[in-house]
Amino acid sequence: MPYPTQHLAVTIPLIAAMPPKYRLPVFVGGVLIDVDHFLDFGLHKSGRAQSRTFVLFHGLDVIAAVALVAAWRKSPTLGAVALGMALHHAKDYASERNWVKVSLLWRAKRRFYAPRVRRGWETRSPLTWL
Ligand SMILES: [Zn+2]
């Protein structure tokens, strides 16, 4: 699972290429969506969801939903978030090829049951994320 800093490194060229007002949305979609790992890790670590995986912002369907809302609302800002999310997921899939992140709806249908998911950077000290 790529570290947040790896997502940042991949996202920086896209951020640099965007007009200034879309840079933060691309950063949010490209890097900050990994905040859902903290919910997942917290539930896993607390023992409440040992065999379940809750990465709510990860999934091609999530990206599609954000892109559709962006198109419906005619919001280039939300479109920039979706673009960052697409880049984030491309990096995730290229690095780990983990089926569990493909679809939020599929995970929800399975009640987020995914017993063999490895936790990575989020289990380590933030000092090691660099
Ligand atoms: Zn991710």
Description:
By secondary structure, this protein is mainly alpha-helical. The protein has one domain (4-115). It is 57% helix and 0% strand. The longest helix is centred in the middle third of the chain and has 21 residues, at 76-96. The model has no long low-confidence stretch (mean pLDDT 89).
Keywords:
about 130 residues, globular, mainly alpha, binds zinc ion
| Quaternary organization | single chain
Mean pLDDT: 89
Number of domains: 1
First-last Cα distance: 14 Å
Structure in a nutshell:
This protein is mostly helical. The chain contains 6 helices and no strands.
Give the SSE layout:
Elements lengths: L3 H14 L5 H8 L5 H11 L13 H14 L2 H21 L7 H6 L21
Helix pairs in contact: 1-2, 1-5, 2-5, 4-5
